[in-house]
Amino acid sequence: MKCPFCSHSETQVVETRISEDGDFIRRRRRCGACDKRFTTYERPDVNFPAIVKKDGRRIEYERVKLQASMKLALRKRPVSTEQVDSAIERIEENLLNLGLREVLSGRIGELVMRELKKLDKVAYVRFASVYRSFEDIDEFKTLVDEVRR
Is the model's pTM score more than 0.90? Predict the structure, then answer.
């Protein structure tokens, strides 16, 4: 593996750890040339279904986009990065288990809302209000009433 600092091709693994759920391996590495340390993550390379947007476009699944939307909803909320990562893992597992080549973006939105509802009710309401494109305050009130129950 190339060093991200000096591009030297020889690095040494200093420490290896398996994640709690066993889904990935974290490796601490040291460069043989500049002696700097960095972390790499090893996870299985799987093919996620293509995402079909509302307008019919098809795009590749991107974990980064899912992460960004969840982090936006969870901004300034007391939810750890580990909890968010676990929720994303569950969403991805669910997508893979569908066994489909394409999935509607709305289906992913529903999966995200289900996970956010478990993590933080305020984040759930934030995400749902944007995702469902509320037109008036009554739709928002209905959602809040639903969460309170």
Answer: no
